[in-house]
Design a protein that fits this description.
520 residues, alpha/beta, TIM Barrel, eight-stranded parallel β-barrel, three-stranded antiparallel sheet, 18 helices, 16 strands, 39% helix
Length: 520
């Protein structure tokens, strides 16, 4: 069974709240999608000036796997296809494939287009046939197909057959509102499939959290093209998550939609696109999330170390992910031994070094530290305890100033003195808040020595008060999540002073980045 993957991250995904891609962002994402083995990349609307630049840039690139696709609507009711600016822009994109969407639901035809049902059919036929006459391969998106079919199945089917008769190479059934139950997707695709003589595709949205399930059941019912976005980005609740769909197709259904070697790049690709999108990677995302193969309970850890199949549905290495054993009072010595093995340290349960680390861990947890979400800090803890670690810099002092000015603006400035390789650095930087200013000042001081730090940033910052009864004198625990193009990691700090706790977590984050990049 051959399944074609159609990615619409650059168009539908760009409609996600909080995402705004530059031309360069889109080119970088398209290049990464091609490397992953995606067959079709919907690059945007050629009517949009920014997207016109994207298509111009894509013409100069040679993709190994993917075909760039231009996206647009059927002709306007009052214009012929040849005279419609949208249609002309689709042709100007100079792509081999064009995807056109049209109205399928009679509700939209009457209330949105405000034309007759027959006129809508003419718009579909004219648009598809005109583009085909210009030598283009046309995919036709039946917008709101499932809602349309439930209300008026005869007309919904008629719109799809109209596009097919006009020469469309693929008919895509869209659950545009994302509100269709999986059982209805199965029923409707099963009824439609015998009537469609060209390729049949599915385009799901996630408003019921069923985008992936609906896509998979549509494939089982006969769809051979599946559309979605990386990490499920998209308007409202997002689109069907193509990352998860790929993982299911390859590891559960045995469908070689991409190669085994490309599958190993799935986690890296998902994280890369979240970085470019300036969106935090969901930790519990199937297959590629940090927590997808994380184990905390002692029973789980013990079983997984004996046989991973006991609590893992696949080998995480298949998708480029890895197992994580979370550090907590529930896990005992096992996580220490596992982490030591990862660091090529030969330890056993009876080793005095293990007892030393366990005692240190217990003492720190008693002080309020928590390492289950701070694996980077835990790795540094082991290396420091076993004297397998050298510091990248020494702090001589820092000062943070918060100033509220007469114009009501609040500014933060951090001044820092450090020593790197016997060279003293004294710098200052401003920030949105005191921690941001401290982060900026530290990296400003280190950038000439360690340029790789420019590729990381803080993606999340959390503060928890550990003893609410102590009021403003209470200890706080700061958790920082940091991220670069390939990875994300957590660090922790604890103190009665929130700036000091933040500094501890910040330093761990920077030093872990340098360690994992093997900076000398």
């Amino acid at each position: 069974m051959e399944i074609k993957l159609y990615d619409t991250t650059l168009r539908d995904g760009a409609q996600s709240e909080g995402i705004s891609y530059s031309v360069n962002d889109k080119i970088r994402i398209a290049t990464k999608l091609d490397e992953l083995g995606i067959h079709y990349i919907e690059a945007g609307w050629p009517m949009n000036p920014k997207d016109r630049q994207v298509f111009t840039s894509l013409k100069k690139r040679h993709f190994k796997n993917a075909h760039p696709v231009a996206f647009g609507a059927t002709r306007r009711p009052d214009k012929s296809a040849g005279a419609d600016e949208n249609i002309r822009s689709l042709l100007s994109a100079d792509t081999e494939i064009i995807t056109v969407f049209g109205k399928t639901w009679d509700l939209h035809v009457r209330d949105v287009l405000k034309v007759s049902l027959d006129e809508n059919l003419k718009m579909i036929f004219d648009t598809v046939s005109y583009l085909v006459s210009k030598g283009k391969t046309v995919f036709y998106d039946c917008e709101h197909f499932f809602d349309a079919y439930k209300q008026n199945p005869q007309y919904a089917l008629k719109t799809a057959l109209c596009a097919q008769d006009a020469g469309a190479a693929a008919i895509i059934l869209c659950d545009t509102n994302g509100g269709t139950l999986t059982r209805d997707v199965l029923r409707i695709v099963t009824e439609i499939k015998p009537k469609i003589k060209v390729e049949l595709g599915i385009h799901g949205h996630n408003d019921l959290d069923l985008g992936v399930a609906n896509s998979i059941v549509a494939i089982e019912a006969g769809c051979s093209q599946v559309q979605g976005t990386m990490n499920g980005y998209g308007e409202r609740c997002g689109n069907a998550n193509l990352v998860t769909i790929i993982g299911i197709l390859k590891t559960k259904m045995g469908i070689d939609c991409i190669s085994d070697s490309q599958l190993k790049e799935l986690t890296k690709t998902a994280h890369f696109i979240s970085e470019i999108s300036n969106m935090r990677q969901e930790e519990n995302q199937p297959f590629v999330g940090r927590s997808a193969f994380a184990h905390k309970g002692g029973v789980h850890i013990n079983a997984v170390m004996k046989n991973p199949k006991t609590y893992e549905h696949i080998d995480p290495a298949l998708v480029g992910n890895h197992r994580r054993i979370l550090i907590s009072e529930l896990a005992g010595k096992t996580p220490i031994l596992i982490k030591a093995k990862e660091l090529n340290l030969d330890l056993d349960k009876k080793s005095p070094q293990v007892k030393k680390v366990l005692k240190l861990l217990q003492d720190l947890e008693h002080q309020g530290y928590a390492f289950e979400a701070a694996d980077a800090s835990f790795e540094l803890l082991i290396k420091r305890a076993l004297k397998k670690y050298k510091k990248f810099f020494e702090l001589e002092g820092f000062r943070v100033v918060v100033e509220k000015r007469s114009d009501h603006r609040i500014t933060s400035e951090a001044i820092i003195k450090i020593k790197v390789k016997n060279i003293k650095e004294h710098t200052a930087a401003e920030g949105d808040g005191p921690v941001n200013a401290l982060d900026n000042a530290l990296r400003k001081a280190l950038k000439n020595f360690y340029p790789t730090l420019a590729k990381m940033h803080l993606s999340d910052f959390k503060v928890r008060v550990l003893d609410e009864k102590a009021g403003t004198a209470a200890k706080v625990r700061v958790l920082i999540q940091s991220q670069d193009e390939n990875d994300s990691w957590g660090t922790v700090g604890v103190s009665e002073n929130i700036i000091e706790a933040s500094w501890q977590a910040l330093v761990d984050s920077v030093e872990y980045k340098l360690l994992k990049d093997k900076v000398e």
